[in-house]
Amino acid sequence: MMRLPTHPLLIVFTVLVYLFLMGPLVIVFGAALSDTTFLTFPPQGLSLRWFERVFEITAFRRTMLTSLQIATMATAMALVIGIPAAYALNRYRIQLPGWLSTVFVLPILVPEIVLGFSLLRSVSVDQNVPIFTTLLIGHTLLVLPYCVRVISASLASFDFAVEEAAISLGSRPLKTFFTIILPNVRSGVIAAFILAFITSINDVSVSLFLTGPGVSTLPIQLLAHMEQFFDPTVASVSVLLMLLTVAVMAVVEWTLGLTFLAK
Amino acid sequence: MTRFAGWILSLPATALVALFLVLPVGATIAATFADPLGITALYEAFFTSGFRRTVLWRTLEIALITTFFSVIVGFFTAYVVARASGRVKSLLIIAAVFPLLTGVIVRSFAWLIILGRNGILNSFLQWTGLTDAPISMLYTQGAVIVAMVYLFVPLMILTLVGVLENIPEDVIQAATSLGATPAAVFRQVVFPLAVPGLIVGAVLVFTGSFTAYATPALLGGERQMTMGTLLHQQAMVSFNWPGASTVAAIMVIVTVAVVLLMTRMARRLNPMAT
Fold first, then answer.
1. Which residues form the ABC transmembrane type-1 domain (chain B) (predicted)?
2. B141 interfaces chain A, CB cutoff of 8 Å
3. pLDDT of A101-120, one tens digit each?
């Protein structure tokens, strides 16, 4: 940004802020690995028994699978409908009305918990749509804005004259899309997929009202578990989720570089 | 053909939003004005109940305090991050992205371990001899606010790093070459140019904390009910659907009002607007 001296107090402040950001996550690791039921200071004993407990609890296994299923399906659906929308918004910017891009901001504007509650009211109860389908619709809406925005951003610098040239040389529009457009937005698609997937896996507010017999997601199950027991299994699940996040971030770092997330 | 191509390509996504977001949320809000007792009956019921009024004010208060601290902490941190370079900078950005990608449950649970009666903070205080009995820190407004600030600071840092990096280098150089001290550059150039971005970030934090569920549920519990936990309680515990719909409608109204007001303000305050 600029070459001005940074005040030493600001640097001290920043160090403290990052300790504040990282400390609690380190403590969760400590709780998962501690031998005792409560994490005490100073910590006593190391053990992996809470991780073993996680895999003994069937509810965690089942909801983890549901979460992965919903995240994969919702992200795939959002990409399938989001990529054409992002393409249209960029390619036909002049012909399309301005309010159309606002449509894809709406899911951000409406509180997630209200979306979940309204889907339960209208879609699940009034229309008798199965709860799993309603949950999937909710998650697709939750991640759609990410997909449209990230892919729009990667299309913004694309020169559509290239596409015109291909078409004028006799390439079919659909074939042109797959051979010219998609390879150019590949990194955007990967970024959108990852952001959407992680958003869906971690979601509480949309899923809160959309659980039923045999259908629940991992975060909702964790909430329910915490209301009944206070034991470090939740810390172990948290650690497993964090390791998943680290793995995903490592993949992103190798393929795209993480800086795109800060855009 | 090309005239319709744009419409056809964006139709599936638009239809999904219209059918499953606009219609259901619209129906929820419409239902609150369609009470047999009259158009405003449900709202009168909400505002005459002292308990629900308290919940609304408490939620607004928590959201405002959370926004204030997140903006302050986020801004000064982003200022340092934006001016760092090379490896240090990428490390600082990654360290802000990681908590953001860690779920809200994990991050709220962390504070449950820290602030609990047998939590790490209490056992640390007793170990040092500062206290001789556990202090109750959970299920207080402070606990909810600390966890919420923790939730939103990374978002604020990343948003504002982007804003600060967009400030043109030559504007700052011009100010410096005209004899402005670093403090004056910060006060008269950097800060005014960052205000629109600050407002956008503040809106994100305010609406996010006003409508949060998991954090107040875990750290505030029954004692510190907020709009989010009240909505859940009305719908799933009391099965009072009209009451729940009213809470949902008030949430939407407040969110939309804040977003519209603040984005308009951000636009007006933007000195770089063309």
1. 56-262
2. no
3. 888 888 888 999 999 999 99
Residue A256 touches partner B, C-beta closer than 8 Å: no
**3-class DSSP state for residue A7?**
coil
How far is the C-alpha of B257 from the C-alpha of A107, rounded, in Å? 16
pTM for this prediction: 0.92
> What is the residue-averaged pLDDT of chain A?
88
Domain boundary assignment for chain A? 57-261
Point out the residue among B76, B167, B248 whose CB comes nearest to the CB of A118: B248
The rounded Cα B164 to chain-centroid distance in angstroms is 20
Domains of chain B by start residue, with CATH: 37-269 (1.10.3720.10)
Q: Is A91 on the interface with B (CB under 8 A)?
A: yes
Q: Are A145 and A237 in contact (CB under 8 A)?
A: no
A57-261: CATH architecture: Orthogonal Bundle (1.10)
Cross-chain residue pair B113–A28, CB shorter than 8 Å: yes
Q: Does any CB of chain B come closer than 8 Å to the CB of residue A89?
A: yes
In this predicted model, what pLDDT tens digit does every residue of A157-189 receive, in sequence order? 888 888 889 989 988 888 888 888 888 888 889
Q: Is the pLDDT of residue B208 over 80?
A: yes
Spatial CB neighbours of A168, under 8 Å, sequence gap ≥ 6: none
